[in-house]
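Researcher: Re-running this chain for the archive, since the previous output was lost when a drive failed. Same request as before.
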Amino acid sequence: MAAAPPIQPDFGQTLTKGVKYLKINKIDKDGEDFGSQLNAADNLILNYPDIGPTQYNILTTQEQDGCYLMGVIPVENTSSLNNIKNLDLNIFKAPVSKTLDQLEVAVWNPNNDGGFSVNTPNEYFNAATDLLDFNLANTPTSVTSSITVSNVVGSPVYLSVLIPEESVDAWVEGLPIHLWETYGVQLLNILPVVGSGTFTISAQSSLNDNFGGQYYFGGVNFSLFGGSFTIIQVIEEINQSTIQPPQTSNPILININPEGEEFDWSDYNAVFGNIDIPQYSQTFMQIDYNTGGTIPTNFELLYSGSAPKASIQDSNYTQRGWSNGRYDGSQNSSTDFNIYNK
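Model: Regenerated structure tokens:
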């Protein structure tokens, strides 16, 4: 019996990620008054030192003493150079030979044939337990998974995953793929193991850390029709954007965190009550046709029931007010409906 899933956040609350408010001085650092321009502005562009210019569309503008408080449409990809992490993780400290049979899982730590060899400072890595502190800045992040394999039988597929510390016992015991989301397991990359002899395969995806906390890297031989392979090396690379934008002259002084007592519930909260996080179905999955054609690119995940859920209300199919007009139909039984009286 699998261990209990980790405690989930309160999904009854709607949280918006990213910058929501800008508090901007009317007077810039050179003493020039920009009040009239700010009052008339419908958007602002801020130059971040690592991801470059980011545009904020203004919803409301409220004049305060010496500044304007602007409510903006939240933009998620904001950043801070204080937390940039570019990691090159060689999962194994020494060459090993680990065979994965169909649906067999692995956790890459010292108790499972390997351990991290981190080529960057250890503040991002717990050397005692080989747990990766994966609290990334909210910055575009790429994750590249590479494995070197041999002795391939059949056509297996290797899934590279991140496993929360509190869910690793359930993962080792055998966690069905449809419960990964419940236990916080994140799929990083899908690597079809196709070839002969000894060879290396890689895949890359983008990731924003939505959970925080500490993780193990892991993997599973996801094969629908049997198959196995032997892993000789596993490498995970995590890279964040470090693009330096051009310098601007006369920048406006900006306070991202406006002060105010109980600000979230005050009249100054321009987006109070807004909902911009979609509701996801508990039943229906998202079909991915990114590459065109008639076969979805995420066919295997759909077949296994583990594809991402579709952004749709399940009540659209159950509440009669929605379903009758779309699927079941309706009939008016009034005796005088559409009767023309002379």
